[in-house]
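Dear U.,

For the methods section draft, I wanted the exact inputs and outputs in one place so we can describe them consistently. I've listed the two proteins in the order they'll appear in the manuscript figures. Please don't edit the token lines directly; just add comments below if something needs changing.

First protein:
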Amino acid sequence: MLVAAAVCPAPPLLVPAVAAGAAAELDALRGDCRRALAAVAAAGPDRLVVVGAGAAAVTHHGRGAAGSFRGFGIPLTVRLPAAGPGGGTADAGPTAEPLPAPSAVAAWLLADAGWDAAPVTAVSVPDDLPAASCLELGRELAAGSARTALLVVGSGSHCRTLKAPGYLDERGEPFDDSVARSLAAADHEALAALDRELAAAVGADGAAPWQVLAGAAGRRESTAPLGGALLHHTAPYGVGYLVAAWS
């Protein structure tokens, strides 16, 4: 059962070593990611699953799975927390595949927040995983009696300004605003109905992970609904950065 979720963006610039001289510019964003993870920890989950895009196929990563920022010129390796409270050992899990960049950023966020509330695994999905498959994966993750929490990582439009990575697309800001409203209201039905063609056009790599969250939250229809809080909604580099907590 899904008991909580944190939604965070996944730009490598969140990692100070990657951001270098611009590290301080994202301090507020990092702080809001910590707040979202604190809200998830307060829900008392039995397990946390990181959900991010960037994989060629749906890939499950076990406890202690590693990712690297060498592709960004930084010799930094990060790992999913190997154990929750009470210690334990790392579990390489179903695959030894390295974490894609979004999930590596998530691993850094968890370390930055000092996460030790529950064991952590990850699922990486293709950017173009169909909505129906995303929703089904979310339902699978939330199945059973375990108190499950998600850390969903991905960014909004990368077309918010002329200097943005995707140049300017006037559809980008309204798209991000609609996602922000859905996250603020914990509206899983609105996330499930996201226009994936538009999401791809404006470069929103969070679309597939958000729809996995929608599928997981949809299983709660017979129980008390989750409440949402939007903690961050900016586009400092022409890319939409959204942080939310559901609990």
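Second protein (the one for the lower panel):
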Amino acid sequence: MSISAADVKKLRDMTGAGMMDCKKALSEADGDFDRAVEILRKKGQKVSEKRSDREANQGLILSRINDDKTKASLLEINCETDFVARNQEFQDDAESFLNAAFENDIDNADDLLKIELDGLTIEKHLEEMVGKIGEKIEINNVILATTEGTLISYIHPGNQLGVLAEFDGDLTDEEIGKDVAMQVAAMKPLSVTRDGVDSSLVEKELEIAKEQLLNEGKPEHIAEQAAKGKLRRFYEERVLLEQKFVKDNSVSVQQYLEQNDAPLVKSFHRLQLGEND
């Protein structure tokens, strides 16, 4: 049957798909718009599968936090190009996915894909975005944080890096919390305290330090002691509360918090595009 230009335009306006794709879908569906939309979705799924080996290292990190700072969500949505990430429609869709995660207390990407939004699962929404945009698009990370203390959210300009920091009590000055969240963003600590560092990593660092000292000709017993000194420096670089505070290197993060009568950090989450797959 003959497909009019007006019908093609109507389907394109409904779906955002390309003109030729819309014309082919309408022809295949004998002019039935619902069937044509279904055909486009199926084509979107095929596009997604074809692009499964493509790198999706661009995108957005977004956060939402409630008014009393006791619940927050952090979401990473990925695409292939920065051009798409800066598109307003992509950003609006990402925001709606974040809100769905927050409102449904979702703490992982797989569960978020099953949530319905405007009559479709988020997984189907992603398929439609792939068909429309022509890039691999996926939600890689969803984090839910709750606390009896205080949560602080920090999104670095450009939305490629985000942090949620949990403080063990009431934090009256949010700027202090932002400072610490920015510290996490910039300095990439492994954990809040030494106890949180993986023991195998500690053993490896100790072994490397000792081997270096032995290679320098140090006796075994001296190498053992000096390696422990190097391990202390490792903790100062990789443990948040022991790190030098970026805004004032004369104090550690813990000393900065104590000087300002602020509660200590209890936990943190850090998401950076392409680093948390």
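Candidate sentences for the figure legend, describing the second protein: The chain has two domains: 5-53, 58-192+259-272. The longest helix spans residues 220-238.

Thanks,
Y.
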